[in-house]
Design a protein that fits this description.
It contains 2 helices and no strands. The chain is mainly alpha-helical and 71 residues long. The longest helix is centred in the first third of the chain and has 34 residues, at 3-36.
Length: 71
């Protein structure tokens, strides 16, 4: 893969990672609020776990690309 293409893909993944972190924080805040209101959080917690798995995948993709840029 060409270096420029790697940097382009890495740039997109970096944006996705930042957005993913923002969404994780929002979901965590939602769960806290739901618990305060004594609501069932099972679905929200399941969604949070799915989101965390996606974030780990993005982190792995980022690491894979960074390793390709190493001399």
């Amino acid at each position: 893969m060409y270096t420029t293409a790697i940097y382009d893909e890495l740039s997109q993944i970096e944006r996705d990672v930042v957005e993913g972190e923002r969404r994780l924080a929002e979901q965590e805040a939602l769960i806290i609020e739901m618990k305060r209101q004594n609501e069932d959080t099972a679905k929200a917690e399941g969604e949070l776990e799915r989101m965390r798995m996606e974030q780990r995948r993005r982190d792995q993709d980022r690491q894979r690309l960074l390793s390709r840029l190493q001399p």
